[in-house]
Amino acid sequence: MRKALSEKNMLNSFLKEHAYRVSPISSRSSNLTIHPLRNIMNVSILGGMCSAAPPGALMLYVGNITIGTPPQEFQVVFDTGSSDLWVPSIFCNSPACYTYAIFNHLKSSTFRPTRRIFTIKYSSGWIKGAVAYDTVWIGDLVSIDQAFGLSVLADGFEGMPFDGILGLNYPNISVSGAIPIFDNLKNQGAISEPVFAFYLNKNKRGGSVVMFGGVDHRYYKGELNWVPLIQAGDWRVHMDSISMKKKVIACSGGCEALLYTGTSLIQGPSSLVDDIHKLIGTTPQGSKHYVSCLTINTLPSIVFTINSINYPVPARAYILKSPVRAHADWSNSWSPSTETWILGDVFLRRYFSVFDRGNDRIGLAQAV
C-alpha cells in the first residue's frame, strides 16, 4: 500500500529526487503511419429501451503508446481538444491512479526531469503533476526528448479505462507549456505532411485508426470537404445551422463548432439542447431523457450544415440502446457565453476527419 502523502509533499518528493506552406494532402503517403484505436466504452445497440444521455463517456477511442527506454506502454485517448500528453507517475497517490499503468522514471535511461509544475482541468476532472522529457513512440513514429506530464494528483478520472491523454490541438492550447508531440514529430521530420486524421468505427470495438503524415482514402467515400478554421490555434470552425426536417432548430444565423475526438457526446448550450430533446419527444427522468425504442426508425436525422455542406446524423447514431434502456447522445451541461457546439465522437464516427495543421483547416467526408 502506497504511503499517503500531502499534495505539497508528493510534488516536492518528485522534484527533489530529480533536481537535475499550402499544399494538397496526399493519399497513401509514403510516410503515412496508421495507428490502431479501439472503442473501449461503446454502448450496445441491441435491444432495450431508449433515452437521451447526460454527460459521460458512452464511447471512448484509445490507442497504445510507449514512453521511455526500455519502453513502458500506456493506453491513452488521442484528443483534439487538448495539447498536453500526460500519464500517471509512480508518485501518484490518488485513487484514480491505483488501477492505471504507472510510469516508472527510474527504469528509463532517457528520462530527463524538470522543475515545472502544471495543472490541467477537464470537464470530467483535473490532474496535477510535473513536466518531464523522454522518448515517446506512437507505433513506428518516435519523438525524441518529448515533453510530457507525470501526474501526481488526479480527481474525476476514477474508473476511466485509460491511463492518460495525448493532446493533438495547437501549441498555444498547451497548459503545461510543452511542445505537443505532433509538433515535435513534424519538427523532427518524422512525418512528411503536417496532417493527421481519424476513422472511428461505428459498430465495432476494433477497426478505428488515427493516421499521421497523410490520408488513406480507403476509410472514406467521395471527396473531402475542406473547412477553414476560424483562426489558427484551435480546431474551431464556423457552422451554418443545425436543422431537422429542413427546419433550423439551433445555430440560427451561424455559430461555432469545435471538433474534439476526446468528447463522446454532441454538446451545446443548455436551452438549445433542451429544445432538441423536446423535438425528439424525450421524457426526462433525473439527468437522462428517454424515448421509446420503437421511434428510432421514425425519428428524423439531425443535420449539421458546415461550409454549406450538410452532415446528417441519423437517429440510430444519436439514440443509443443498452440491454436496460437506450439514450440520445446529447449533453446540455456546457453553456458557453456564445453559441458554441462541441461535435464529439457521435458526429465524428459518422464522418472521416482530417486535421490539417499546414493549411489550418479540417476535412470531412462520409466514413466507410
Automatic annotation (TrEMBL):
The keyword Secreted applies. Pfam families: A1_Propeptide, Asp. GO terms for biological process: proteolysis. It is found in: Secreted, Extracellular space. Disulfide bonds join C92-C97, C251-C255. Residues 61-365 form the Peptidase A1 domain. It comes from Moschus moschiferus (Siberian musk deer). InterPro entries: Aspartic_peptidase_A1, Aspartic_peptidase_AS, Aspartic_peptidase_N, PEPTIDASE_A1, Peptidase_aspartic_dom_sf. This is Peptidase A1 domain-containing protein. Keywords: Aspartyl protease, Disulfide bond, Hydrolase, Protease, Secreted, Signal.
